[in-house]
UniProtKB/TrEMBL annotation:
GO CC aspect terms: cytosol
Keyword DNA-binding carried by entry: yes
Gene3D superfamilies reported for this sequence: lambda repressor-like DNA-binding domains
Name under which the protein is recorded: Helix-turn-helix domain-containing protein
MF terms in GO: DNA binding; DNA-binding transcription factor activity
Origin organism lineage: Bacteria, Bacillati, Actinomycetota, Actinomycetes, Micromonosporales
């Protein structure tokens, strides 16, 4: 018999560790926010540098944010939204499985 573990088993074990699921969820949210900002920036025809100037940030901060590498504060999200001529809308929605 083999003691080898497949990826799914290893992932499940790691996600069961204290705090891991919360960290995974925070990373997912940061990634999705970054992707949305990137989509809006590209739709506007802006470079990261142009967005950074408009939002009072550095280009590298915008790049890290778009890559999901940072968890933004609400003031940062508000600055990005304003620079993109958008309104930040933070809301709670029911979980899909809570029907």
């Amino acid at each position: 018999m083999s003691d080898r573990v497949d990826w799914n088993d290893l992932r499940d074990r790691r996600l069961a560790e204290p705090g891991a699921a919360e960290a995974y969820e925070a990373t997912r949210i940061a990634y999705e926010l970054g992707q949305e900002v990137r989509h809006l920036r590209e739709r506007s025809g802006w470079s990261q540098s142009q967005l950074a100037r408009a939002a009072g940030m550095t280009q590298s901060a915008v790049a890290r944010f778009e890559a999901g590498g940072t968890i933004p504060t609400l003031p940062v999200l508000e600055r990005l939204a304003g620079a993109l001529d958008m309104r930040l809308d933070v809301r709670f929605t029911p979980n899909a499985d809570a029907a």
